[in-house]
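Subject: sequence -> structure tokens, single chain

Hey, anyone have a minute? Need the predicted structure for the following. Not urgent.
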Amino acid sequence: MNIFKGIMISVVVVACLAGLPTAMAGIKKDGLFGSREIPSKNMKSFDKWTEMWRRYNLPRKDDVPEIEVGAPCRGLARIQCGREAWDQFISNHEGESGFPVLKAVNEYMNKAPYIVDPVNWGIPDYWATPDEFFLKDGDCEDYAISKYVTLKRLGVPMDAMRLVILQDENLRIAHAVLAVESDGETYILDNQVDAVLPHTQILHYRPVYSINETGWWLHQVKRFSR
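Reply:
Had a minute. Here:
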């Protein structure tokens, strides 16, 4: 995630505070990375998230060229190559659950090259669908989104997953990861590493907010030590 996004995190959170429930029902004191979580169902401030889902749910275009066997995956053909490889990956892991499938999905998506949005899309911040990720690769939230959608296709409930926007206190940059609840533990799928670890074992991430298709959570960290 680029420097602009790090600046914008605070702007987004301030804008979203208006959407927090007045009763603050459902506050969790021991949430992700030890934070205090304040939930909300008001999604109106998360236009990049909702717009990504709108594009994802559009019918697949018929004008994506068919790929001949052995042909190089170049240009728009990368979408078809990516779809076919993705569908095969899904097929190979159907029926699997728990930690092994989380690790497999993390490693699979992490093979894509990292490219920042200003270079990739010519704008400061863009949240890509899986097809767009297959076509142009992406940055941290794009990896997390494609992992979310992949696990959703594999049967993981959306309520068990959240895209987490956070601050990497070691690198001093904004970052995004996917948090997934499985077998009583919450694991972090991160494009920076192939290892899938419980959130309690990662000490240098300070969560700002997290989101899925059902709502979002503001994270408050009272004390943070490196």
